[in-house]
Structures are given as C-alpha cells and as structure tokens.
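Appendix B. One record, verbatim.
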Amino acid sequence: MAETLAAQLTRVQAAIAVIEEGAQSITAEDGRSLRRGELKVLYEREKNLIRRIEFENNKGRTVAEF
C-alpha cells in the first residue's frame, strides 16, 4: 500500500529537522561519508505535500488567499 500524503509530509519534515540541527553530512571513523538530502529540495517537497493535503481536505475546491 502506498504511503499517505500525511506520512510522507511527516517523513520530509523529520528529514528537514535533522538537517537544520546540523546533520547535513556525516563522516564515519572509517572515512565513509553520507550526505543527506538538500534542504531546497526538501522544502519544495514539503510545500508540494502541504498543497496536496490542503487540496484533498477541501475536496478539490481552491481556496483563495488574500
């Protein structure tokens, strides 16, 4: 079964939080390194997921923002 939009958003926001806390990349004692996702990409994904969730919650109706 596919992951819900809410679950995806939770996962993306958790990844953002980890990076914002200073864990963008890590290097192990043996020299191997790991680089987490780019914040810009994660922010865009977060914004997209929020829009999709709002769209679903509004049953497809667009709500104007002023």
